[in-house]
UniProtKB/TrEMBL annotation:
<feature type="domain" description="ABC transporter">
    <location>
        <begin position="2"/>
        <end position="250"/>
    </location>
</feature>
<dbReference type="InterPro" id="IPR051120">
    <property type="entry name" value="ABC_AA/LPS_Transport"/>
</dbReference>
<dbReference type="InterPro" id="IPR003439">
    <property type="entry name" value="ABC_transporter-like_ATP-bd"/>
</dbReference>
<dbReference type="Pfam" id="PF00005">
    <property type="entry name" value="ABC_tran"/>
</dbReference>
<dbReference type="InterPro" id="IPR003593">
    <property type="entry name" value="AAA+_ATPase"/>
</dbReference>
<dbReference type="GO" id="GO:0005524">
    <property type="term" value="F:ATP binding"/>
</dbReference>
<keyword id="KW-0067">ATP-binding</keyword>
<dbReference type="GO" id="GO:0016887">
    <property type="term" value="F:ATP hydrolysis activity"/>
</dbReference>
<dbReference type="Pfam" id="PF12399">
    <property type="entry name" value="BCA_ABC_TP_C"/>
</dbReference>
<dbReference type="InterPro" id="IPR032823">
    <property type="entry name" value="BCA_ABC_TP_C"/>
</dbReference>
<keyword id="KW-0813">Transport</keyword>
<keyword id="KW-0547">Nucleotide-binding</keyword>
<dbReference type="InterPro" id="IPR027417">
    <property type="entry name" value="P-loop_NTPase"/>
</dbReference>
<dbReference type="InterPro" id="IPR017871">
    <property type="entry name" value="ABC_transporter-like_CS"/>
</dbReference>
<protein>
    <submittedName>
        <fullName>Branched-chain amino acid ABC transporter ATPase</fullName>
    </submittedName>
</protein>
<dbReference type="GO" id="GO:0005886">
    <property type="term" value="C:plasma membrane"/>
</dbReference>
Amino acid sequence: MIRVENLHRHFGGFRAVDGASLEIATGSITGLVGPNGAGKSTLFNVIAGALPPTSGRVTMDGEDITGLAPHELFHKGLLRTFQIAHEFSSMTCRENLMMVPGAQSGESLWSAWVHRARIREEEAALLKKADEVLDFLTISHLKDELAGNLSGGQKKLLELGRTMMVDAKVVFLDEVGAGVNRTLLNTIGDAIQRLNRERGYTFCVIEHDMDFIARLCDPVIVMAEGKVLAEGSIAEIKSDERVIEAYLGTGLKNKETA
């Protein structure tokens, strides 16, 4: 589905992404791991249109999407979440979800005057869908709660719910487990697996919790210093000498002889 070819993103002389190439297969839950500063979030930002690449190419289902703006990618079904959830804190959870779909009739002043019946129908459909999403995520009891009052994990669930309000094809999740307790992280993991299995979502997940990655992801891609270092199953990644060295600063062979 997503192919990244020799992608670079430089900030002056610093090469945050330095010739990364990878593929995210349709229907997969692909893990993206690596030490801090490896370039993972920058790679996400370039793919999702938040940053233009210095060079390289990104395609989605064979279509060149390099450098497209986030709203253009949104309409193509490519969405991303962030390390810190971006909710509308003064709106309820239900209202946060209802805000997501674009081109709503109520956004037009003219339609607000002459197409009130259509607006009521659209809002009723959005309300029904929002309630279905909240129920799917097991947070329906929070539908009328202000989003700003939610815990970190609940905000991550709500952010995942926003991707369900449109026809998402591929979702990039950036540290979905950051600041989330184990119980809610398990709930988030369950929701990701169900979306993948039941609705055909493709995911790419940045996460430092290797147990979470092991539970959800196959394959796992490892980045270091802006490059793709290794790719394989979680077992292959954990036993890869290059990966161990990137994380620990020394390889198993060096540790054994030390």
